[in-house]
């Protein structure tokens, strides 16, 4: 079982949307039995909350089921997940600090957009303070990045339907 964790700041916008996109893609590829996915935030701002209403609306527009409650990254995440994917540089920095504090200094953490070849921008912008349009833009960014990530891990783990 390959375990993938998507991480943003509050776990109500980018990371639950990335998780939903990933789940839809692995199901469409017929390889969902090989994966477990989740999402979390580096902050404790929205623990237990549903995703932002704009995230839910965006997901509905693209027929993505979103079934998630906000949670904060914890020590066991560093032990349990094979891939931890941060949405931006601040999340990456926070995760790198946490992994050292929790005793997982060697754990690899990636920016999700690192998997997009020739990407000039590596951060997924936070749409929280914007409008519905920003969430749709984030959907397209995440959709592309998840595609490239999935190709990488399918090749790495030789997973094909």
From TrEMBL:
Listed EC numbers: 3.1.3.48
Keyword annotations: Cytoplasm, Hydrolase, Protein phosphatase
Instruction: Report whether Coiled coil shows up as a keyword of the record.
Output: no
- Keyword Ribosomal protein listed? The answer is no
Task: Recall the GO molecular function terms of this protein's record.
Answer: acid phosphatase activity; non-membrane spanning protein tyrosine phosphatase activity
Gene3D superfamilies reported in the protein's UniProt record: 3.40.50.2300
Q: Which residues form the Phosphotyrosine protein phosphatase I domain?
A: 2-152
Q: Per the record, what is one GO cellular component?
A: cytoplasm
- Indicate the principal place this protein occupies in or around the cell: cytoplasm
Active site at: 8, 14, 126
> What family does this belong to?
Belongs to the low molecular weight phosphotyrosine protein phosphatase family.
Q: What is this protein called?
A: protein-tyrosine-phosphatase
């Amino acid at each position: 079982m390959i375990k993938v964790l998507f991480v943003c700041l509050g776990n109500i916008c980018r990371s639950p949307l990335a998780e939903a996109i990933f789940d839809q893609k692995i199901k469409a590829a017929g390889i969902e039995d090989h994966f477990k996915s989740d999402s979390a935030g580096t902050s404790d701002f929205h623990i237990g909350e549903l995703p932002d209403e704009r995230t839910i609306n965006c997901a509905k527009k693209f027929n993505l089921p979103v079934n998630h409650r906000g949670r904060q990254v914890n020590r066991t995440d560093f032990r349990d997940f094979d891939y931890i994917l941060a949405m931006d540089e601040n999340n990456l920095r926070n995760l790198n600090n946490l992994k050292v504090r929790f005793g997982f200094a060697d754990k690899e953490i990636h920016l999700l957009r690192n998997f997009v070849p020739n990407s000039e921008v590596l951060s997924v912008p936070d749409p929280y303070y914007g409008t519905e349009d920003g969430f749709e833009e984030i959907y397209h960014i995440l959709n592309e990045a998840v595609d490239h990530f999935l190709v990488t891990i399918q090749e790495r783990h030789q997973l094909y339907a």
